[in-house]
Specification:
This protein has 23 helices and 22 strands. By secondary structure, the protein is of the alpha+beta class. Keywords: Membrane, Transmembrane, Transmembrane helix.
Amino acid sequence: MQGWPNVGGGRWRRLLSGVWRMLAVWAVSTLTMLVLAGALPDFRLQSESGESATRIAVTAAFGAGAFGLLSSLVWPLLVRALLLVPALVLGLLVFFLNGSLLLLALRLNPSGQGAAAPETAVVVAAVMSAVASATGGALAVRDDDAYRRRLYRLADRRRRHAEGRPGPAGPGTVFLQLDGVGHDVLEAATEKGLMPTVAAWLGRSPAGTTHPGPAPRPAPRPTHRLTPWRTDWSSQTGASQLGILHGTNHDVPAFRWYEKDTREVMVCNRPSSAAELQRRAVERTGDGGLLTVDGASRGNLFSGGAEQLALVLSIAARRGRRNRSRAGYFAYFSDPANAVRTAMSFVADVLREIGQSTRARFAQQRPRVKRGGLYPFIRAFATVVERDVVVAAVIGDMFAGRAAIYADLVAYDEVAHHSGPHSRDAAKVLERLDRSLALIAQVAEHAPRAYRIVLLSDHGQSPGETFLGRYGLTLGNLVRAGCGLPVPRRAQRTHSGAEARAAVRAALRIPVEEGVEEHRPTRRSEPIVLASGNLGLVSFPDVSHRLSREEIDARHPALLSTLANHPGIGFVLVRSEEHGGVVLGAHGAEVPVDELSDEHPGPLADFGPGAADAVRRTHGFPHTADIMVNSWYDPTEGEVLAFEEQIGSHGGLGGCQSRAFLMSPLALSEPVEEDETLVGAEQIHRVLRHWLRESNGPQVPLAEHECPEGARGTARPATKQPAPAKEQNPADA
């Protein structure tokens, strides 16, 4: 195996360096314990009659050593025993269990002088773990090879355990989804030096990396190519990820929609809805998904058919031994220092968000949305906790040698919704995500098999004011006015579609069931109005079929003209008895759906190429709403008007939200021919499946008539290979 270190000449040097770091951490922990004993009245290292300074120092040294030893030996066993506890509850128990280990360490002290109140022990243990972690990290930074040697040890341990068993066949593939990062945002981030790892993969020298001197620094050799792709009309994670992982997103018209046959509102980030959407996709394709055999799904809405799961929403509502949605927390909590460090990062991000929102408010930044309440904590969960858990799970999967891994990192999407896709707040998140990518790339060098890292996004985000902020009323109130119904003076705030909220509730084992009653009108004749970014859906629940334009005009003569002529509305789609379907625009513009094209776009002219095909496809879905409303779009500024309270939105047509990216290693075939365009999540699925076949991937072969369209090369029926022996992932132990 390539990449293994030369352990000959430098063995003693590395051993002495490790011993020195252990002694340094022990000394700092001892000093910390002495300081805390002097500062906290309920924590002492001497008897009430007093002891000599030497005796106190020895007591502190023994206590610090015993606490460190117990943390290393006992802590993993405690976490393993408590894995059935909900994840965030376990996060709180970390501190209490850590305090218990400290009390035990004091009891084991031969002098018998140490004592602490239980609540004080929690504080002391947390501080000591944080200080020990910071000290070890600082020393490791000074030693350039410290982290790399740790990776060698982990990989070497895997190799020894795997001796005598056949190694994995072919390279594995890691698919990393940067949620909400559009193609244009990624390009700008690499140029500005925000994402040096991604820039290096693309062979670019980001701004600020040149060094003084007569000769400029040569650009690194590229290892990846960057390809844009265009999303479906519903440019959001539910539709995109379902199509990418399961090969179809048929009948997913938006992030949330009303189904008349069941009289329920489907919401993509609701566990029951996600499970139903996944079931429908599997039934439609007859295939389990992209990750069917020896695959791992981490932080996603859907499983992709994987057996190894962590933070997967579609199984979050399950109970019992087969529910593995919280797998991955063992690696996260097995080290108490990691738990403390992540808790500190969580608090820091909460304070960072409060500071950033306060600064935006005092600067009277426009556009701006409310960022109070629970949002700082939800943001911190997405940008810290979920990121750490997902990255730890991916690393465990790679050391386990799994063939296909798909993980979603939602941090940017959550922050961009409230701060804006091009804001400084969002840029800081991209920097931290790039460091996570660098970590995964380092691990890939020492995994038991070669790994190809594919980077992609599910959609982008388009900036702009909210519809409510510009016009003083919600889309729901505009619809009510068009129907001649009373409009409440106080506009009701729409629900946010941020995926992180569902992940938090799923981790807490709280059902993520958005109140369907909130969407239902007081009288069945009144419309249900739902928002998915800048896409609005209007349904009349008292009629079992999709209403036609003629029926809507008979019931509410002013409604369609009110919507189509409003300056905040780009276009409206309705079924037509005469034309099958028709797109309505301002000033009486109307074009039958079958006549729409890029050459004759009608009201879709501002929305760019592919808009006509996207609208026509959605028109054919069984659960498309009675009225589909897409907001106004300014092609000059790239701005839309969100029907939700978001200044960075996605879900409809218009601007960067529809331009996602696919970044693939040069070792893989081109995703499309040079003169072609990647369109739709289903085509992305076919490309990814084709790449897995190139690597002798784990997928069930497609029949010859299902040859992947848009993927270069011939999709040959792959010979089924036995699944590699399952190794235990530290994230799943």
